[in-house]
Design brief:
heterodimer, A: mainly alpha, Ferritin, 9 helices, globular, disordered N terminus, B: alpha/beta, Elongation Factor Tu (Ef-tu), domain 3, Rossmann fold, Ubiquitin-like (UB roll), five-stranded parallel β-sheet, 7 helices, 18 strands, elongated, Phenylacetic acid catabolic (chain A)
């Protein structure tokens, strides 16, 4: 409800309001810079979910059993759905959502040994880790267990964003993404049941762990400071990364995969 | 993409000295388009001196009233609100986009919830819609409203709130906080700030019993109320905000590009899309390359229009453009001539651009 005013003439600059934890509620009351950063954040999430979903689609056929097949299919379905929900909010800012959803080949991947660090590539905003191809079932499960935990931690952070309609979507998505991470861990547990499985899983974890870690962004990031002032971030990259490392250490230790 | 539809004004009721309540009727075909949820708003557009202004106003009607009604308070210097307060008449037509907004919680007829709302001035408008709908659709729920105004005479919907209290006996309580008028109880004089909230929560409102809180008002009030509610244990997901812009920003005009770069005020563009080249002329200032292409009925790709998603990327083959912002292209792409067309304004008199490369 952007254009009404109260009898209380006292207002404040929107930047101060945001810096003090204020919430914005509609495309009409976001300032231009905020709009840009918010859309970028949403585009990054949408692209990552679409790329993640597309990458996992091929894995369905690698599943060793019905249960695993269903788990992989569920991840493909729900990540696409989550992208759709955030894309809908981008649509409220004028984005052509139908075109956006197909404007990029989401299943495209770089070579397995490409060295791109945390760089964004090509025409989309997916997290760099999602540029790497999955190689078979065990590799996919290991990636999903590690990335799943990262997504849960990153979504916990994003659920606090100062744009209320988006915060509400992230809060609704969070339990389902947590379930995806749980499916990954469950799959990893089954794989770790044999010596051969453990060996393959360790290898996959060694490949994915640094790549997932880099998806948390750089320590002491200047971008973080900018976003924090807008209420779009609340916990620094390095703190989220440390939280993830600790969670993953505990999960892998329980499966003797560390 | 949301479109504008005509709405006929059927009633303009003066609510206070500087606020009107406007009843609107969609065309028969548009009835379902304008079905709304409590707490939503409408965005209107109107030309003023050859310039389109868009303004949003909250719906004050409840779901069961069967009408579409908005409250418009006059803002000093506000073009649209002044016009609506002084010149708008029954029989006029307004153009509006379908209702939008998320200032509501799902209705659950069986629940017995306690809702708490804080409204400042015309911030009452969406809150009134929420109160009326909730009391009607959730027969066991109750509502507490804390409503801040400067004077008694500037309270919007004062009578309607009194009527609601009588209609839903014991289920709606309203606490008026008046800034400039002394009242029997000191607590009810002043502004809605952190101290006022603390005092209210000590004796008048049991925050522990509150399921959901709604806040609509100016920024300082929203911050103060949210802080007080959080301190008393409400979680983020229990607090619904609706912010209204405190200013009435005019249409953003771009500065004219400096003389040195161009000889003409317009640019001739040759743009290739899907293998077809089209040429058109557009002004160097005020309109991005993307907007110009769209206006010339080119089906140019775009998504965020904020220089963010890079969907609108194209390659400049000849001539020079300037990007206002760029959050998506890497330096090496820019060096290759790629631009975000939604952020690009021509510097040269002629540009050749391709969306196909």
């Amino acid at each position: 409800m952007p254009d009404e005013t109260s009898d209380t003439p006292e207002t404040m600059p929107i930047e101060d309001y945001l810096a003090q934890g204020g919430m914005l509620t509609s495309p009409d009351n976001v300032p231009p810079r905020y709009r840009g950063e918010l859309l970028r954040l949403m585009a990054s999430f949408v692209d990552s979910e679409l790329a993640g979903s597309a990458g996992f689609a091929d894995v369905i056929n690698e599943a060793p059993g019905i249960k695993e097949r269903i788990a992989a299919a569920r991840i493909v379905l729900e990540k696409a759905d989550h992208a759709g929900r955030v894309l809908e909010i981008m649509g409220s800012f004028g984005a052509d959502t139908a075109r956006y959803a197909v404007h990029h080949p989401w299943s495209a991947r770089l070579p397995r040994d490409a060295d791109i660090a945390a760089e964004r590539r090509g025409g989309d905003m997916r997290l760099s880790v999602l540029h790497y191809p999955l190689e078979g079932w065990i590799d996919a499960v290991a990636m999903n267990a590690l990335m799943g935990r990262a997504v849960v931690i990153q979504l916990g952070e994003l659920a606090r964003v100062s744009y209320q309609p988006l915060a509400e979507v992230f809060r609704a998505i969070l339990p389902r993404e947590a379930h995806h991470a749980g499916l990954g861990l469950e799959g990893l547990k089954r794989i770790a049941g044999t010596e051969e499985g453990r060996r393959a899983a360790r290898e996959a974890i060694a490949y994915w762990r640094p790549r997932v870690a880099s998806s948390f962004g750089l320590a002491g990031s200047a971008r973080y400071e900018k976003l924090a002032r807008l209420g779009l971030r609340h916990t620094p990259n390095e703190a989220l990364l440390a939280e993830w490392q600790a969670a993953v250490d505990a999960e892998l230790a329980a499966l003797t995969l560390n | 993409m949301a479109r504008f539809h005509p709405l006929q004004v059927t009633e303009v009721r003066r609510e206070t000295r500087d606020a009107v309540v406007v009843t609107l009727q969609p065309r028969e075909d548009d009835r379902s388009t304008f079905r709304f949820t409590q707490g939503q708003y409408l965005t209107f557009r109107r030309m003023f001196d050859g310039e389109e202004l868009r303004r949003s106003y909250s719906i004050c009607a409840g779901l069961d009233e069967g009408v579409l009604r908005v409250g418009i308070k006059r803002v000093d210097g506000g073009c649209f609100s002044t016009w609506a307060n002084e010149a708008l008449q029954p029989g006029d037509t307004l153009e509006a986009m379908p209702p939008t907004g998320a200032f509501f919680t799902p209705l659950e007829p069986a629940v017995a919830k306690h809702y708490l709302a804080f409204a400042g001035g015309s911030g009452i408008t969406p809150v009134l819609s929420v109160i009326k709908t909730t009391l009607s659709r959730e027969p066991r729920s109750q509502f507490t409203l804390v409503y801040g105004n400067r004077h008694v005479c500037s309270i919007m919907f004062r009578e309607e709130l009194d009527d609601l209290k009588n209609l839903y006996l014991g289920r709606l309580s309203v606490l008026h906080i008046l800034e400039s008028e002394a009242q029997d109880i000191d607590l009810f004089t002043g502004r809605i700030d952190v101290e006022k909230c603390e005092a209210l929560f000590r004796g008048w409102i049991d925050v522990k019993s509150v399921d959901t809180a709604f806040i609509c008002g100016p920024e300082p009030m929203m911050l103060a109320v949210a802080a007080a509610l959080r301190k008393h244990g409400l979680r983020d997901e229990q607090i619904k905000f609706e912010l209204f812009a405190s200013s009435q920003p005019g249409r953003a005009r771009r500065k004219v590009v400096s003389e040195s770069a161009d000889r003409h005020a317009t640019c001739e563009a040759i743009v290739t899309l899907d293998g077809t080249a089209r040429s058109f002329t557009f002004p160097k200032a005020g309109q991005s390359l993307l907007e110009a292409a769209l206006e010339n009925r080119m089906d140019a790709p775009f998504a965020c229009k904020a220089g963010v998603c890079s969907t609108c990327r194209a390659r400049v083959i000849e001539g020079e453009v300037e990007m206002e912002t760029n959050h998506a292209l890497e330096d090496y792409e820019v060096r290759q001539g790629y631009v975000l067309t939604c952020q690009s304004y021509p510097l040269s008199d002629r540009i050749v651009v391709s969306y196909d490369q």
